[in-house]
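Most newcomers find our protein records easier to grasp once they have seen one. A learned vocabulary of local backbone shapes supplies the integers on the structure line. Here is such a record, shown just as it appears in the course material:
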Amino acid sequence: MPNRLSTATSPYLLQHADNPVDWREWGADAFAEARERDVPVLVSVGYAACHWCHVMAHESFEDAATAAQMNESFVCVKVDREERPDVDSVYMTATQAMTGHGGWPMTVFTTPDGRPFYCGTYFPPRPAHGMPAFRQVLAAVAEAWTERRDDLEAAGTKIVGAISARLDLGEPAPLTADVLDAAVASVATTFDEDSAGFGGAPKFPPSMLLEFLLRNHARTGDGEALRTARATLEAMARGGIYDQLAGGFARYSVDAQWVVPHFEKMLYDNALLLRVYLHLWRATGEDWARRVADETAAFLVRDLGTPEGGFASALDADTDGVEGLTYVWTPDELIEALGPADGRWAAEQFEVTDQGTFEHGASTLQRPYECDDVARLDDVRRRLLTARAQRPQPGRDDKVVTAWNGLAIAALAEHGVLTGDEESVAAARRAAELIASTHWTEGRLRRASRDGVAGRHAGVLEDYGDLAEGLLALHQATAEGRWLELAGDLLDVVAEQFIDAEGWHDTAGDAETLVHRPFDPGDGPTPAGVAAAAGAAVTYGALAGSPRHRELGEAALASLARLVTQAPRAAGWAAAVGEALLAGPLEVAVSGPAGPERDALAAAARRSTSPGAVVVVGEPDALGVPLLADRPLLGRRPAAYVCRGFVCSAPVSDVSALSAAMRPS
């Protein structure tokens, strides 16, 4: 019989709807039942594309005896960490504090009021690798609750006290050029000269850090910043972490050489990386970077687009319970798909060997160099993709998360204007329209929707910051005032709900009260909420001529100065926004009727690598577009207006003069 998750909107929760475990969704009712039954709460946290979440589900949650033990001794709550990042943050902090590490699946035992007293991650069905069996853990916790409850209650109180202490970020200080240049130097000491990237295995795409390095290079001309960013981007693009047939990046590489990925493909990784590859191409003109940007944009629209216009969260790591089944190849499989000549040629091109680079003699596809015979390679890729489509395909988590869609809107809007791909801009607009009509309700954001229906969970700080970022990019791409207006509304909520006398928070002031109000100033796989809000505030200030918003962004960044100094790899987006502030940011308005002259000025403006530059193109005094207000033609010709740091240059009407005006003084 389906359990209580059968009516959930989360695909992850629905994966557990037929477990014999009597799961409940997170909510007051579950904790009220725990108080009534006088039992602890077992909180199990994961997400739909998580390989080891599936493993534990199959081993334990689908097992009748284990489920009976869980149901008897606990109220069991299943949480989708992507729908409830606040709940995940609270208990991940506790798990890391108690065990020294964290990850998913996450298994937390709490008192009936939510205080965690025992935490872990994956537990096997039998003792292994120094870990107790899950059923042993269940029995021990149940016995301790009966025999030593006071100890558990005290432990829970102590843990809540420990995780509730705010991180000391030091006194606010501006992100000066010296601070940012020192951050680049610090990051350089961790660069992997052999395989690129930073640090060792496993390697995650350092998207925000790479954006910072590109922006720092644009300001300083520092060749090392560009070299390390470019090398990392090329290594990822040529490795197995990148889907060499369909485009799109996997979550991370388990090795230091970017060869073997953890195969889930996340919306946020691909949105962030699309933007960075696009910016590398703009800075260097390298064809391979443009190819990867184009293929990643196509992947987003084709494979993650939803019928309602948004973007799905992820493609699963597993196919039919086997990780990588869809993606890996043996030499014989290439020959079967392509014939002997093309099959052997493809094996050379993609480094598919008899020994294999993955498991059971299979290989991930790599592309170590650019191929001279592009037509043949394109034909081979097309035929392999057709053959791959006949294989079982990974599941798709089709919930639409506000923050990640904001990142996708920003990336696709920029891709469209920089490459001329109108479909990218159209896809960004469709997603924005869905979020505006479905997620934005009664002046507040919801975290996610599915099938066009908004979920009940409130948006968190990253939702407001990342969506505002996306809407501001779309405003620049379309010169439509509605997107700027909505971004302003979002930032108003940020100022009202996410900042108080203590500082910044990741949850709103009127959000559900948890045992601890979370705030994480560091980037994870996506920008920290405070850094995302700072970036959007700075951009809004430039587009709308609003000192109030610029000051909001400056204050947020100032609070992160110590983090940028001491842990720059965890503060890439804050540092990137700091570069935008140092650059002005540059403001360019191209005013005039559509036509070749305006197009030429617009293209020149958008080629600028000035960090965080804002560019709007449209008719003079276009409704809802402050950057075009009082910006008339120059004679009868379209005109470009350039401002930086509250100072504007004289308008120009030819490309060379515009390029000169945009160069740093």
User: Anything to note?
Assistant: The mean pLDDT is 95. The two ends are 70 Å apart (CA to CA). The longest strand covers residues 41-46. The chain has 25 helices and 23 strands.
